[in-house]
Amino acid sequence: MNPYFSFQWHITDECDQRCKHCYIFSGGHPCLESMTWDQMETTFYNCLDFGEVYHRTPYFYITGGDPILHPDFWRLLNLIHEHGLNFTILGNPFHLNDQACRELKWFGCEKYQLSLDGLRETHDWFRKPGSFDCTLEKIGCINRAGIRSIIMTTVSKTNMMEVPGIMDAAVDAGVNVFAFSRYVPSGGDLDASMSPAEYRKLLLICDKKIKEYESEGCKTYFNRKDHLWTLYQYETGEFKIPEYAKPGAIYGGCNCGNCHLTILPSGDVYACRRVAESKVGNVFDDRIADLWVTSMEDYREYEKFSKCSRCKLLAWCRGCPAVAKGTNGSFYAGDPQCWASEESGLLIPASA
Length: 352
Known about the structure:
By secondary structure, the chain is of the alpha/beta class.
């Protein structure tokens, strides 16, 4: 099987929530866009062409807004199914039931990702009343259909102390996968000022809880998605730099510029959805295969990273450039929650 290349494909901005950390609504009240069926076909075959050129298997993360609200949602899934491809849905819980989940499974849906951004009061403040309970309830529908259920939490200083409780709620509901990533500042109501020490303490608390769950035989898989987990596990000795590592090679960390693109309902192609200035082209006008070796090059210039370029973990981490951009205004700035230092021996002195 060819290595996968992931396309985060937003087919519509339509949504029945107005989340306080949503990129779509962070600028006020935008004009909501959706792709037409012809545009979705154009996008799909452009992605297939990319896969043929670079010998990669396209993998679609279908999202929005809430993608199930698009009038041609099921028609798109049928097109993907006809080409023998699988996909993941990132959406809301409100339109799921056992029948809908069985149909999703038949069309090739492997995973369905929902969000929990706090315990009941906090989550419903982030999203809308009733969302917390509905999310936990619909995990059962997803699981019964044989689709892997995922809970993702967006962490900020506003909700960081609730993350352990969110983990407990997700496990009690029977979720298959749990992960969290950090909020990218976008002018909303969330406090993104976690210090490196505060964030490291959160990882320590979550690591202890994860290991307790694993020792009990818990069936939930805890995906250490945030790349700063690599730094944490390097310090604890759970991650070691492999002997096979070659200078200049990239083995993990941030997918931007390596194996991921985002496509918006407007057709705009972004290197990273969480970086508003990362537009590299438009899928209706440009061949994605060409963009990959032209406009995308800026996101593979690792020597420009002011801190990561001096770090021994460059090839496996790089923190989150989107959080750096949202906090400090530069994609290449240091991750504001990264605690690596020259004193720790991880960073080459800036003057060297």
